[in-house]
Amino acid sequence: MAFEAQTYGAIMDRILKRVPPDIDTREGSIIWDATAPAAVELAILYTALDFILGATFADTAPRPYLILRAAERGLTPKAATGAVLRAEFNREVPIGSRFSLENLNYVITERLPEDDTDDTRAYRVQCETPGAAGNELFGSLIPIEYISGLTSAVLVELLIPGADEEGTEVFRQRYIDSLTSQAFGGNRQDYKDKVLALPGVGAVKVFPAWNADIDPQSFVPDGEVAAWVASALPTLPVAARAWLTAVYTAAADLLLTVGGAVKLVLLDSAYGVPTDDLISDVQDAVDPPDGHGEGLGLAPIGHVVKAEGAQSQTIDVALTLQYQSGWDWAAVESYALEAIDAYFAELARGWQGSDALTVRVSQIETRLLDCPGVVDAQNTLLNGEAGNIALDAVHIPVRGVVSG
Fold first, then answer.
1. Pairwise CA distance, residues 44 & 38, whole Å
2. What is the tens place of the pLDDT at every residue in 346-382?
3. pTM recorded for the entire structure
4. Where do the domains of the chain lie?
């Protein structure tokens, strides 16, 4: 019996049918007045039962009950993370110093001496407000407490994007995926689960490889080896020079390793190409460079892991649009750019679950038809050619020049 059919009227009808026919059951009668409140309470109870039934299943459970269900598998929604940025100051400032920019506060967490110049000192700063809010603001920082000699403090670059708390539908899908793909002992799902849990990571693809059972760290050339190769190469015959270059490059790129050779290709939490800082953080967490294959990070012993960022492919779009009366490209341009950006962002969000992305003309034209002032869109060219553009496995699309 469907709960939604159990309305007050349906319940009242069933109750009154149980009353002997010689008793008055009209509205306002004693029987009617006595049973009506009970029928209301039963209707409320059926409504509650319908909600409970929906909350029982992961596919329909509201967020609080989905969290309870997922907790049985050790899963919880990913918490919001604060953005990590680079700031420049005219002098050294203490670690832990706090600054503000508009309505956000930041705290200094680390010195970046390699980024210093004659006039500035560079630091990592963490936005104290978790979420994506810290990804957008740049400019002059105001010290919350006085710092003697400080005359310039500027927030200049986003290093690791902040991310909002994991959305309900994303978390629901992650829970369902956990039922169909088991993470264990360094398999693909294990790497995905562990890497996606790291701050700033929005997507990852895992590329496994197989090599002989040899000590992985012994293949990685150090500074002395690099210096020797640089000095020796010019003195070698052409064939030997080519062979040594190929072997040295493979070793430096962590390709001459044991059977657990793994490459991780990343997107940041905004589904964009990650910065070198984020890649470095992931590398240190999964398989630190000073102990490849030794199990010092999240990767199992014997797995040599190389983390790198996905790459962007610029897509120029040439449009042929028919406009409504009074509209032209100047009026439509901002809407068209927004539509194309939204499509490319949608593709990037699906990058992890695809073998490779395809930028489709039909999808662009369909979205343009929803833009104000556009009557028709046709003959769209991508990078000067008619037809879709198929990207490879490690690329995401980025909007280039759009003309209309």
1. 10
2. 999 999 999 999 999 999 999 999 999 999 999 999 9
3. 0.73
4. 3-56, 84-160, 187-309, 312-403
